[in-house]
Automatic annotation (TrEMBL):
Alphabetical UniProt keywords: Membrane, Transmembrane, Transmembrane helix, Transport
Family: Belongs to the binding-protein-dependent transport system permease family.
Domain of life: Bacteria
Membrane topology: Multi-pass membrane protein
Record field: transmembrane: 22-41, 53-77, 83-103, 132-159, 179-204
Residue span(s) of domain ABC transmembrane type-1: 18-201
Species of provenance: Pseudonocardia abyssalis
Protein known as: ABC transporter permease
InterPro entries for the chain: ABC_transp_perm/SBD, MetI-like
Localization in the cell: Cell membrane; Membrane
Length: 214
């Protein structure tokens, strides 16, 4: 069977797996954004604390994904939950680092002007610093999403949702006629999701960032 025929016959299944893949990554990046931006806000003006936080989340990214999923089997079992926890861990570094860098790069003169106008610390953060740092934070979320889309495929190793199931299914019977088509179909699905996610973040940047800050 040609790859085109395979796609036509398995399109519904691939779409279902693609939606599962996008959902598990979306939920994971959303949780990582809440945690990561919170950690960045708490440490961006404390050099030592910021270094410690970045060092800790950097360690997460060095753990081989297959090994981490294997370790989670005894703690969290199999399925969606351990995949989400692992993706949150892998997504933290770009978001935390970009939040800290983005907030530290805000021009001190702008902050001092806001302070001179009588704005409180919270008002300066919400109305001046965060909007100016937002494009950099959004870039961190974008990198985390692309990273998570690739790693989520390995989550099929512990029966996680998504396109990794198609890839692992093909690899497990590599000598069968459609094995290569399955691997290619799952891989192509991840690439398509990555392109769509990238376009979404470009659109989000245009919609949520003022022209003067872009």
């Amino acid at each position: 069977m040609s790859f085109a025929d395979f796609l036509a016959s398995r399109l519904d299944n691939l779409l279902e797996l693609g939606i599962e893949h996008a959902l598990v990554v979306g939920v994971s990046v959303l949780i990582a954004t809440v945690i990561g931006v919170g950690l960045g806000l708490a440490t961006y003006d404390r050099k030592r604390s910021g270094q410690v936080v970045i060092a800790v989340v950097s360690v997460f990214l060095t753990i081989p994904s297959l090994a981490l999923f294997g370790l989670f089997i005894n703690v969290l079992g199999i399925g969606t939950t351990p995949v989400v926890v692992a993706l949150v861990m892998y997504s933290l570094l770009p978001i935390v680092a970009n939040t800290i860098v983005g907030l530290r790069e805000v021009d001190p003169a702008v902050v001092e002007s806001a302070q001179g106008m009588g704005l409180s610390r919270l008002q300066r953060l919400l109305h001046i610093e965060l909007p100016l740092a937002w494009p950099v934070i959004l870039t961190g979320m974008r990198v985390s999403t692309l990273l998570a889309l690739g790693i989520a495929a390995i989550g099929a190793y512990i029966q996680g949702p998504g396109l990794g199931n198609e890839i692992f299914s093909g690899l497990s019977r590599i000598s069968s006629p459609n094995a290569l088509n399955q691997v290619l179909g799952g891989t192509l699905g991840v690439v398509v999701l990555a392109v769509l996610a990238d376009l979404l973040f470009v659109l989000l940047n245009r919609l949520t960032t003022s022209r003067g800050v872009r």
